[in-house]
Amino acid sequence: MKVIMGNLIAIYRKELLGYFVSPLAYAIAGIFWLIAGFFFVALLLGPDGIISQAAMLDVQKQQMGITGQPLDVAYEFLQAFLRVMGSMSLFILPILSMGLYAEERKRGTLELLATSPVTNWAVAIGKLLGVVTFFATLLLPIAVCEIIALSAAKPAFPISLVLVAHGGLLLLAASVLSLGMFVSSLTDSTILSAILTFAVVLFLWVIDVAANAVGGPVGAALGHLSLLKHYFNLLGGVVDTSSLVMFASYITLGIFLTAQSIEALRFQRS
What is the pLDDT of residues 5-43, one digit of tens each? Predict the structure, then answer.
């Protein structure tokens, strides 16, 4: 067990270091932060932002003599912003996962990896942890901006809701990256890997729409497979066990299929 953990940590460090020395990773980070910053400002301070909508709603209530609870600006902003972040991440995650195994195939090092004493599971988990950690670092500056903005809310905004929402975003990312890792293990083309992973993501994205169209028990079963549906549950602060199980299932499925894919390669080479 100690040897397996040592190998897993070594793979994790190698994968993570690979992202921090990659110009492509820095380009992705720059674009991600630029777009996220735009939506952050637009949704909070823009002409049609949450603050403007709350002020307009208050004026309308005063003119109509209506009393009631004011709009919860902090909650509405966090919901709207992280929904955008979730959708935006679905475009970036296939790019992050495309080289996990495809690059190894292209360099000819996958055969060495497949025939090494390191277990396929340890390699897959180490690689997945590396790319998820890199994605988490992309979220750190954005989370700091959110905390600064939400700290102005009165009464104080519960930090637990922020943690649950960002935990949901990380689970969503880990699920997509795990499936993308499996796709990457099937080809030596990073571009093809990214396209196929995006196709999988698109299917899981629109499956909720198909579920509503089908309806009935089949529709309910399809809707349960929707990653975004479970992510939105966590955004609302609803820690549903079924959502956590579904994310864990996607992550485990991706790791399992990747390990089997590399095992098939090992069998071919033996």
Answer: 888 888 899 889 988 888 988 999 999 999 999 999 999
Residue 22 tokens read as: 């990659």
Write out pLDDT tens, residues 227-267.
Answer: 888 888 888 777 888 889 999 999 999 999 999 998 887 77
Contact status, residue 145 vs residue 40, Cβ threshold 8 Å? yes
Amino acid at 207: I
Q: Judge residue 1's burial from the number of C-beta atoms within 10 Å of its C-beta, 0-12 exposed, 13-18 middle, 19 or more buried.
A: exposed
CA angle 7, 11, 12 (to 5 degrees): 115
> Are the beta carbons of 94 and 181 closer than 8 angstroms?
no
Instruction: Give the global pTM.
Output: 0.89
The radius of gyration of the chain's CA atoms, rounded to the nearest angstrom, is: 21
**CA 112 to CA 105: how far, in whole Å?**
10
